[in-house]
Amino acid sequence: ENGRPEHRLRAAQLRHYDDDGSTELQAPELTIYDPETPPWEVSSERGWVSADGDLVRLQGQVIITRAAGPTNRPVHILTSELRVEPDREYAETDEQVEIFSNEDWVRSVGAEVWFGEALRVKFLSNVRGRYELN
Q1: Neighbours of 25 (CB within 10 A)
Q2: What is the pLDDT of residue 119?
Q3: Residue range 46-74: average pLDDT?
Q4: What is the pLDDT, as a whole number, of residue 97?
Q5: In terms of C-beta distances under 8 Å and separation of at least 24 residues, what long-range contacts does 33-39 make, across chains too?
Q6: Which of 4, 16, 51, 82 has a CB 3.0–4.6 Å from the CB of 58, allowing a cystine?
Q7: CA distance 86 to 27
Q8: Average pLDDT, the chain
Q9: pLDDT over 80 at 51, yes or no
């Protein structure tokens, strides 16, 4: 919309399969853009993309970062086996998740994440964390 990218997916190596239209990726890097905040940068060891591009599965160690901006804090997320729906700016995992922002942190098993100007995370189980008040 308006000539601005919404997201970009790059990889060191790509294998496309004609039989089902899916694509396998080595060292994928997904960037999710938001005009109000710095972009989200998502990387993993391996990945898979559905034929229609609506679903991206990131496998192995997954690292998600967003730099600080005028209205948001920096965020760093570590997990594995992440399912991403780029058009919805949504991701989920059933695996261990660690989120860091400045001195604050949260650990959980499983999470649903909505990227966007206001990050929203739903932690699914075994949640522990520390939040420092200023």
Answers
A1: 24
A2: 81
A3: 93
A4: 96
A5: 33/4, 33/5, 33/6, 33/7, 33/8, 34/89, 34/115, 34/116, 34/117, 35/4, 36/69, 36/71, 36/117, 37/66, 37/69, 37/71, 37/72, 37/117, 38/66, 38/67, 38/68, 38/69, 38/72, 39/66
A6: 82
A7: 17
A8: 91
A9: yes
CB neighbourhood size of 79 (10 A): 24
pLDDT, tens digit, 9 for 90 and up, residues 85-108: 988 889 999 999 999 999 999 999
What's residue 134's pLDDT?
Answer: 63
Residues 64/88, Cβ–Cβ less than 8 Å: no
Q: What are phi and psi of 10, to 5 degrees?
A: -125, 160
Alpha-carbon distance of 88 to 68, in angstroms, equals 22
* Rounded CA separation 63/5 (Å): 21
Phi, psi of 40 (to 5 degrees): -85, 135
Q: Which amino acid is at 9?
A: L
